[in-house]
Amino acid sequence: QEKITFIFDESNALGPAFLERMNALLAAGEVPGLFEGDEYTNLMSECRASGMQGLDDAELFARFTKQVQRNLHIVFTMNPANPDFYNRSNSSPALFNRC
């Protein structure tokens, strides 16, 4: 269980769609619809291969998202003087209360 940190600067990665996905990831440990079809099946197979046998897919995915929440760290650098700062804080609250 490797810990990973991503660092994002507002000047290169904070468009509305990106912020929406990061907000969902921080709030729930997942991005809805990120894993579908074969990707979801492969993820479940990888989880089982890593020692999570005997669980149904919903339980596996719940454990996976908990591991994401424990091991993924995200750092955003934002300038509060930026005119978009207030809008970002209102539209993506998890960026401010889960980081």
TrEMBL record:
The lineage of its organism: Eukaryota, Sar, Alveolata, Dinophyceae, Gonyaulacales. Residues 2-99 form the Dynein heavy chain AAA module D4 domain. GO terms for molecular function: dynein intermediate chain binding; dynein light intermediate chain binding. GO terms for biological process: microtubule-based movement. This is Dynein heavy chain AAA module D4 domain-containing protein. One of its GO terms (cellular component) is dynein complex. It comes from the Eukaryota.
